[in-house]
Amino acid sequence: MGGLTEANLKALAGPRSFERGLGYLDAVSGVEVGDGWVTATVHGTERYKVELTLDGPGGPTGVCDCPYGLEGNFCKHLVALGLTVLAQRGSLPRQREAARSRARDVDAWLSALSHGELLALVGELVREDRQLRRRLELRAASARGDFAEVRARVGELLDIGPFTRYGYVEYADVRAFADQAGQAVSTIGALIGSGRATEAITLAREAMRLLAEAVESVDDSDGRLGQVGAGLADAHLDACCAARPDPEGLARWLVGQVLGNFDGIIDIDPLDYEDVLGERGMTVLRESATEAWRGRRTGWAEKHLMEHLAKAGGDVDAVVAVHAADLAANGHTHLVIARELDTAGRHDEALRWAERGMREAQDLAAVDTALVDHLCERYVQADRLADAVVLRRDHFGARRSLLAYQRLRAAARAADRWPAEREGALALLRADAVRRQQGRYNGPVLVDALLDDKDVEAAWQAAAGSGADDRQWLTLADQARANRPADALGVYQRFVEPLTKQTGNTVYEQLVSLLLSIRDCHRSLGRPDEFTAYVTALRTTQKRKRNLMRLMDERGL
């Protein structure tokens, strides 16, 4: 237990979950101690099963079946159990030994029972536990080779009927249904273990179909049915490895399953079956995938499968062909192709595809910015600085944003052409500012660009002439305060007035920040008495706002 401390509980959970875990200390019950592990029940929205592994190689770990825990997170329930364990540290060895003793007692008692007494005990448990009864019934049907019975029982396990309300399984009932459905996985595993792998293949496929139908009527927000689906996929693979079915038929089924699994509940990777398929099956797999893709080149599933198989086989040309058959208008697909070719070391082809993407873009304003960045990087690497500038200029002309201006500036400076490029870019922004005044353009980018250039005087003139938003005026006032204190003072005072009519600590913080800036302006102007009078008047009108008064006192106002 040396690795379990309050500090590493906080590190594992994070501050938020740790703090929330403190509120669940009284909700921990049924603590059981084993060799290096502790389990308990924590009562939250539901009753959650929680287990801590105390002395793992990487330190403590834990699992919880709450929604947050099922995502792999160290949740508040685990924190509560960990803190409970720390509080009971002294009694843990005794509890562990008591648990071992109880287990030994049970083993000894069971060993002493006669065959008839064991049957009676099992019968009693079966009558009391419906889940246990179903599991044993399935085991019995499997043992006597009654596949029809096993198949019918698996159908019952995946039937949502007993859990539905108005034809739908609500969130509160999903856990019980998922627990029941999970028994289908163990049933298929039992068939494989008893030498009936061929029947297990049939049953696994039937269970996948039933689960896919069920999920359409289930609120599976926590992904519990996804776990069942993963279990069925693993069981199917195990069955195929054991039974070695016809590779051609398996290949066609795999393609159909991947292309038809629109809900994503059964995640099967055909390449996991490579050893079972062999050379002949893999050939049919690729041919079937190619045929499906040729029939629907824009289908997401068809494209994904083709790309997956092509990448696994190292066939870059096939990957390119898949993407080239469905090119996006904004150049994104061209970029994907260029990156694939670059990775393969075919840099000239990659560059041509990137340039083609720019040429074929239907709207330069909507082109994928990542394509522009990629192509400019390639131009710079090839010492084609002038081409990079032209591309950045064209992109800025179509999409006049601050980011596009910054990227143009960087490219032009690298090519020692910024002064001329800057004049052209600012001319476009000034024309936009005029259109904005006429109500035909939105967004005063000109002010932002001049501020980003540290040209405060020009930015101030632009704001005064064509307008600026509140954020820009405040930024201007902050940057111009040293040289234009009177102008900055007017801006700050304009923003104070509406804040005095509002309440809330966030508002008070903003108001005090403005007052500190106003004080700096008055000091620069040599008029501290005017500021004193201003603050005195403000205090008189705002005196009922105690948090504001306290904050002003703390800041010396």
Q: Strand order across the biggest sheet? A: 1-2-3-4
Q: Largest sheet, if any?
A: 4 strands, antiparallel
Low-confidence stretches: 438-442
Q: Structural class from helices and strands?
A: mainly alpha
Number of helices: 28
> What is the number of strand segments?
4
End-to-end span in angstroms?
Answer: 55 Å
Radius of gyration from the alpha-carbon trace, in angstroms: 35 Å
Helical proportion, percent range: 55-70%
**On the 0-100 scale, what is the average pLDDT?**
89
Q: Strand content of the residues, in percent?
A: under 5%
What does this structure look like?
The two termini are 55 Å apart. The protein has a 4-stranded antiparallel beta sheet. 32% of the residues are buried. It has 557 residues and is mainly alpha-helical. The chain is built from 28 helices and 4 strands. The longest helix has 22 residues, at 274-295. α13 (274-295) crosses α14. The model is unreliable at 438-442 (pLDDT under 50).
What secondary-structure arrangement, pairings included, does this model have?
Layout: H1 6-22, E1 28-33, E2 37-43, E3 47-53, E4 61-64, H2 67-70, H3 76-87, H4 92-112, H5 115-128, H6 130-143, H7 147-157, H8 171-181, H9 183-193, H10 197-215, H11 224-243, H12 247-260, H13 274-295, H14 300-312, H15 316-324, H16 332-343, H17 347-360, H18 369-381, H19 385-398, H20 402-414, H21 418-437, H22 445-452, H23 456-466, H24 470-480, H25 485-499, H26 505-524, H27 528-542, H28 546-554
Antiparallel strand pairs: 1-2, 2-3, 3-4
Helix pairs in contact: 1-3, 5-6, 6-7, 6-9, 7-10, 9-10, 9-11, 10-11, 12-13, 13-14, 14-15, 15-16, 16-17, 17-18, 18-19, 19-20, 20-21, 22-23, 23-24, 24-25, 25-26, 26-27, 26-28
